[in-house]
Every structure is written in structure tokens, then in C-alpha cells.
Amino acid sequence: MGPRVLVIDDSAIALELAVQALRLAGFDAAAAPDLSSLDERLAEGTYDVVLVDVNMPEMYGDDVVEFLRVQRQLSSKLILYSGLPEEELERKCQAAGADGYIAKSRGVEATILEVARLTGFRPQLTQPLPRGELTPGPEKSRKKRVLIVDDSDVTSKLLEAELSSKGFEVATADSADKATKIILKKQTRPDLVLLDVRMPNVNGEQFCRFIKGNSLFAGIKVLLCSGEDIEELRRICREAGADGFVTKDAVLAKVLVRELGGH
């Protein structure tokens, strides 16, 4: 196992993405979504690198850096890890006395390269990394994959049956967290995400921005599928960077008509 890396981030999506990608690259990566779990992780041993999100709910990341350096006397390399503009991130890094910074906007592949540079570790791949980190070999012919992300079990099952009958390989997820686990893995990464807008915790608009804002997922198309009115769907589609939208009522009506033998 490679160098130990601790990622501190209250965003479940960003945390899962960073930790899984680091593990795929051969690092011994651990996660801490809050200060309570941070204490637990630190009790488990030392870390070579600690990535600290800047905007944490309990403390700002630059305060966490000072706390780790002064109070906990960590000798680890402390790196600010944020979606802030790089100019602001650099200022915070200098003010906090961090060892460096990594902009989330550069994608997970940049994070892996920077952590590798800091530790002098050459990533050892135990399985294929997500596209964008390596140039994969030719892929065997396969069915197009569709991921349905909807917290309504009835809607998911109806859409899954319809799409499967058309020859697609279909997966479902009732939350953004579960969907993230699916798109992270190359063997399950979809070609298209059919995304509900209104979901608990991380909503569809936020999840669409996450997909479209990460270079690893550049090949994934996102189609919003929602009961929102047309103008609201157009706004969300435009602002979140979705590839298009369909109204849920129209889609389900078509499915039900076909199932019931209508025209």
C-alpha cells in the first residue's frame, strides 16, 4: 500500500470521488467528513498528506490547518483542497501556512498527480482508473449504459423496464451518493444519466453541476427528467449545464400507454 492520505471534506460527493480515485491509484486513503471523524482518523495513525477542504461547516479549512499544525503537531504535508478560485486559494494557503493547495476544478486526476509529487510515490494501478487519468485501451463493444437517478421507486422501475426493452444496460440510484459510486467506476460508468431534479440532500441541479464540472465525466450526457414546468426546466438545464430535458409526465404517460396497449 502506498503513502497514507487523509481527505477532510464535508461534501459527500467530493469526498467519495477523491478517496476512491486515490485508492485506485494505490494510495492508502481515508475520509473525514467532519471534525469528530477527523479525531478518529488521526487516532488511527500518521498520514503523509492531509487534504483539507476550505469551506467546512464547523471550521474554515485554513483554521483546520493551523489546528493540525499547532495543536495536533502534525508533521504531515497539509494541503488546502477547494473549489475556490486559485488566486484566493493561494492567498489562503500562504496565510494559513499550508504546504500547498489543490483546486478541485482541475479534476481528480490533477489531485492524484499532485499528491504523487508531494510524496514521491509512483501510482501503482490495481485496476483501471476513471477516464481522464489514463488513456484506456480499446473497449469491447457493449450496450449503451443509462443511469436513472430518481428517489421514486415506481418511476425508476417503469423507466428501467422501458429502457431495458430498448436494449440499454440500465442502472438505478435513489440518491446522488449512490449515483456517484456508480459513475466513479469505469466498468459501471454510464453514457447517459437520466436525472430527477427534486431529490433529498443533493438535488439534481447540484448533481448535474458536479458531473459537468469534472473532467473525468466529460463523456457522460445528462438529461433532466422532472415534473417541473417547462420554463423552470429550461432554466435549470441552462444553468446546470445539462444536455437536455424531458418532462416526467410525458415520459411516464408514453410508457403507461405502451404497457396498456394504447396508441
Describe how the helices and strands are arranged.
Blueprint: E1 4-8, H1 12-24, E2 28-32, H2 35-43, E3 49-53, H3 61-71, E4 77-82, H4 86-96, E5 100-103, H5 108-119, E6 145-149, H6 153-165, E7 169-173, H7 176-184, E8 192-195, H8 204-212, E9 221-226, H9 230-240, E10 244-247, H10 248-259
Parallel strand pairs: 1-2, 1-3, 3-4, 4-5, 6-7, 6-8, 8-9, 9-10
Helix pairs in contact: 1-5, 1-7, 3-4, 6-10, 8-9
How is this structure best described in words?
The protein is of the alpha/beta class. The chain has 2 domains: 4-119, Response regulator (Rossmann fold); 145-259, 3-Layer(aba) Sandwich (Rossmann fold), CATH 3.40.50. The chain has helices at residues 12-24, 35-43, 61-71, 86-96, 108-119, 153-165, 176-184, 204-212, 230-240, 248-259, and strands spanning 4-8, 28-32, 49-53, 77-82, 100-103, 145-149, 169-173, 192-195, 221-226, 244-247. The strands form 2 sheets. Strands 2-1-3-4-5 form a 5-stranded parallel β-sheet, with helices on both faces. It has a 5-stranded parallel β-sheet with strand order 7-6-8-9-10, sandwiched between helices. Helix 4 links the parallel strand 4 (77-82) and strand 5 (100-103). The longest helix is centred in the first third of the chain and has 13 residues, at 12-24. The protein is elongated and about 60 Å long.
